[in-house]
Structure formats: structure tokens, C-alpha cells
Amino acid sequence: MATLEVPIPVVPIEPKVDKEHPMKCVEWHGKKSVRVNTARPSPLITHPGDAIIRVTSTSICGSDLHLFLGFMPGMKAGDIVGHEFMGVVHDVGDDVKGFGKGDRVVAAFDIACGDCFFCNKLKLFTCCDRTNPSKEEEKLYGDRTAGFFGYSHLTGGWPGGQAEYVRVPLADMNLLKVPEDMPDEKLLFLSDILPTAWHANELGEVGPGDNVAIWGAGPVGILSAHVANFRGAGNVFLIDEFDYRLEHAKSRMPFVKPINFKKEKVYDIIRKDLPYGPDVGIDAVGMHYAHSMLNRMEIAVGLETDTPEVLNEIIYTVRKGGRISIIGAYGGYVNHLNVGAFMEKSLTMRGGQTPCQSYWPKLLEMVKNGELDPTIVVTHEGSLEQSTHFYQIFNDKQDGCIKVVMHP
Ligand code: NAD
Ligand code: ZN
């Protein structure tokens, strides 16, 4: 088969750099250690399909916390982090057809080739076969995901977007041209969390009248509720332990029914309103929030890599024949998964990293005409130099932090 003859990755990962022009960027230096380097050489066009983006806005994602907390394997000291970014095209390679210098663009967090079976046939751009050479990931999953910006060497080791300049490989595939007359904040989240909220609803097949319960009132959970409402959902429950996040969501979206799982029993509250349980359960939490002594201990000693607590609560709570959407990121193994309840209740479970490019045309239109407003999650704005502080308050849930936007 032709695919086997294609070298992987199809483009070099390490960029050529310009030592004369140092830039600012956020580097990972170990567990709970990220800091700005102001003297990193800036990237140059390395392959004719590249574009160099001068970043105007970048944000911190819940996925960055998996790296920050040391849950994601394959990080190296000095890696540039960040995968949510937008800006202006600073330079383009000779093969780039759709973009020119000065264009305003958003990048996808996932790096796709556009040509392989998974990109071309299935439009599963996060499953691209040609942008991530990681043997470790292949060993762990039997396959490789696409490469992701700033998200460890397990996903290719691509330098990330919390930087003044970023090289975007295969630019025609991985950039979206955006209007000049809209503020960055409206557009930036097309790089990840808006398509992700949409994907969460797609995986759960949320449609008119469906009752939806969403675990996690972080930026992804909040936007998933926003999208569910747009798609005509009935009841929308939002579950977290941080009242400030639930209150923020409620203030922007009065239809939301908040539940604090530390104060109330999630199953009891939902089943009081919906005796059968919700049609759809969305996991917008992911791997690192272990609460029980047992799971914390098992993770600490390496008996499991991730916690099953949220998945078990969803399996338990959704109605028989219900649908589960896993949008929260998982890295490896969990113990004690209630697979019996999953099977006996005739449930469906789907998951995935979001193929942003698939949803771009539709979502850009919806943001332009005001049907969706991703800015409802933003609580903090500042400079890249404040990134150490921003990572800390985002992780520790301090100062009302939900979503941070940084300008290099
Ligand atoms: P976040 O960390 O800010 O939000 C997670 C929220 O879940 C927190 O508010 C936390 O208090 C809450 N939580 C923890 N344990 C819980 C429990 N047992 N029940 C209910 N809530 C609980 O992160 P985010 O930016 O909103 O991202 C959420 C998840 O989505 C992360 O795992 C991230 O990696 C993932 N993500 C996936 C994709 C994708 O393509 N699939 C894209 C972006 C983000
Ligand atoms: Zn993200």
C-alpha cells in the first residue's frame, strides 16, 4: 500500500531557527514548572508547506494541565507548550497556496496531512497517520494519533503556540483564515475548545429535546453546555466541585442546572428531575482529577495511569440505552471501570481528540453571526510574561480563573 512508503513524519518536526532573532515562549521544565524564555531562537520556514505565524493571542487549556501536573508522558525540559493560538502570517513557504503574508489566521491544535486514509477518507484529522512518528504511542495504543502542537513527544514533540512565533507545518491544511473586523477573543477558541465542545455534542449525538449531563465546568464543559443548548437540548446539568465555575456558567447560561458533586449526590439530583436518567453524559474532565483515596493511591504507585471515577459516575447516571461522550483527555489505563453496568444498560460510548478542521466552516459562520459566543469562558487576559502565574491560578482554581488569554 502506498501509505507504507511515505516517510513519517511527512515534514520535519525540528524547525530551522533564526539565532539572530530571539523570541519569547513558554517552556516546560518539569512538574508544576513552566516559565518564559525570552531568548529562544525564532522558527524559520523549514519545509515549503510551512507558514510562520506571529502570534497575537494564545490560551491555556485543561490539556496543558495534564502536562503541567506531569500526567502526560514524553515531555522534555525546554519543550515549548501551548496548542491554542492565532495571529498573523509572518512568512510562507513556496508550496502554500491558500495563505499569504499578513493574513489573519487561527491554527488547529491538531496537525493533519490531509492526504492519508484517516484525513482524506474519514476526515478524522486528529488520527492523521503522517504527522507523529512516536513509537512510544504506537506501543501504548497500537496506533499513532496525529501530531499536536506543544503536547509532548508522544504526539510528535511539535513546538507549541505559547510563543511569539510558531511554525505551522502543512499550512493549507492546518490554518483557518478569519475576518479582520472581529476581536481575537471571538476567534481564538476555534483552535480547540469551540470545535471540542461541538465534537462533544456530536459524539453524544445531542439533538432537540435530549437531556444532557456534563461533568466538568471548565472551559470545555461550559462551552459544551452552550453548544448543547444551541442544538436544542432539554435539561442541561453541569457538574463540578467549584461553585465559582458553576455560578459563572449559570450567569452566562440561565438554562444550566448546576450540581456541586462535593455537596450533593449527582445521581440523586439528576434522577429526581429525570427518573430514567439523562440521554447523554459528557465527560469534560479527563485523566488527572482523582478524588478517591483508592484511585489516588493506585495512580501514585503506577497501578493505573488515569482515574475512572467520572466515567463510572456517567455510566451509573445516564439512562438505559444512553450515550456517553468522552471529550476529557485520557492517557492510558484505569482500574475498576464498571463495564458490567455499561454492557447491561445497553450504553454507547464514544471518544476522541477533536478534528478541528472538520468543523471550521460551520463554526466560523456561527461565531460570525452570533449564534455561538465562545468568549463566555474568558476570565483573565494578560501577557505571556504572566504565564507562570496564569498556569498556577488556572490549575489551583484561584482568582475566579476559568480561561486565560495571553498576548505575546
Ligand atoms: P479544566 O481542567 O479547566 O476543567 C475540568 C473541570 O472538571 C474542573 O473544573 C474540575 O473541577 C472538574 N472536575 C474534576 N473532577 C470532577 C468530577 N469528578 N466530576 C465533575 N467535575 C469534575 O479543563 P478544560 O479546559 O475545561 O478541559 C476539560 C478536559 O477536556 C481536559 O481533560 C482536556 O484535556 C480535554 N480536552 C479535550 C480536547 C479534545 O480534543 N478531546 C480538547 C480540549 C480539551
Ligand atoms: Zn486545548
Automatic annotation (TrEMBL):
Cross-referenced InterPro entries: ADH-like_N (IPR013154), ADH_Zn_CS (IPR002328), GroES-like_sf (IPR011032), NAD(P)-bd_dom_sf (IPR036291)
Cofactor: Zn(2+)
Residue ranges occupied by any Alcohol dehydrogenase-like N-terminal domain in the UniProt entry: 48-179
UniProt entry keywords in alphabetical sequence: Metal-binding, Oxidoreductase, Zinc
Cited SUPFAM superfamilies: GroES-like, NAD(P)-binding Rossmann-fold domains
The keyword Metal-binding is assigned to this record: yes
GO molecular function: oxidoreductase activity; zinc ion binding
A Pfam family annotated for this UniProt entry: ADH_N
Keyword field contains Metal-binding: yes
PROSITE patterns the UniProt entry points to: ADH_ZINC
Cross-referenced PANTHER family: DEHYDROGENASE, PUTATIVE (AFU_ORTHOLOGUE AFUA_5G03930)-RELATED (PTHR42813:SF1), ZINC-TYPE ALCOHOL DEHYDROGENASE-LIKE (PTHR42813)
Protein name: Alcohol dehydrogenase-like N-terminal domain-containing protein
Organism: Ceratopteris richardii (Triangle waterfern)
